[in-house]
Amino acid sequence: MDTSMIISSAIAVVGTLIIAFAVSVWLPGIERKFVHARIQQRVGPPVSSPGLMAPIKFFFKQAVTPNSPMPRLYNAIPLISLIIVTAILLIIMPQMYFLGGLASIIAVVGLLKVEEITYMFMGSLSKSVLSVNMPFPDHAKGAKHVDATRSFIEELSTLRAFRLIAFGSFPLYIALFVPVAMSKSIYLSNIIAFQQLHGPVLFTVAGAIGAVVYFIGSMILLNEYPFAIMKTKADVIEGPMLEYMSKYRAYTYITKGLLIFVLASLFATMFIGIPPNLFSPGILVTLATAIIFPILIASMSAFSPVFTFKQFYPVVAATSILGAVAIAASFL
Questions:
Q1: Which of 2, 69, 79, 146, by CA, is between 20 and 30 Å from 31?
Q2: Which residues is 133 bridged to in the sheet?
Q3: Distance between CA atoms of 58 and 254, rounded to whole angstroms?
Q4: Residue 116 half-sphere exposure toward CB, CA atoms < 13 A
């Protein structure tokens, strides 16, 4: 590869990243303003508020040292999560396919799993409630019970995050292997080449079923209703991210918007055969998918109840079985 090609590839990668971040900060606002608010017949926040203005605001807030056994690691986790999501976007860009095994669906799935695991660390490393240390001093006579177990609110979210990792995210990962089964390759370059020759996977029976499974799996991974198992009334807000403040909370907002964009881009790559690439007209497909994706997710969320575990498990199991059927159909 000569110098001009290296420079061109670098510009394409950096430009695609800039576009991804520029678009992703508007996606949460599109969900809230143009879908949730319209369906629920209310005004809603400004479209720039959830994904753009909120992070800017939190960057100027004062940081408080968290009550945690590993405060530096605790505060670093949102940034680590943001880096992981950015790495996934880099992997699916065609300029990065020279990386070989790293530019494969196995690497994508591995990084998505690491991103999920960060929520467990968020909850397990927080030892306070709204920045107040626990256990609270108890001065009421007779109120203290011997050997009473006291737990932190985020620890409940940690347990639910474990359930999400161990069981809930199966549909997304199963759906990703439908294009793999059809192209008979785990490498993104081969999956895209297969679709350029035979047409998008989406327009096949197996691909259409896999797309539905992928969509439901994306909602679970994004912790959207009705699959918001990491957010309960007991957590007040945000589940395991409850205690993050200042710039660390800003990172969580940025990561949420970018993860929506990345999941949409991954869908376009795996099921349509068009990866995110600044120097290709296909970037318009990526952008259109990135906008349509949160609109569909928000539309379903706005009409959905909150699933209990008794409802969550059967739906995830049925969706996983449907994904397995799609994989089986891909061999026909």
A1: 79
A2: 128
A3: 11
A4: 26
pTM of the model: 0.89
Cis peptide before 226, with omega less than 30 degrees from 0?
yes
Mind listing the pLDDT tens digit for each residue in 151-175?
A: 666 777 777 778 777 787 889 999 9
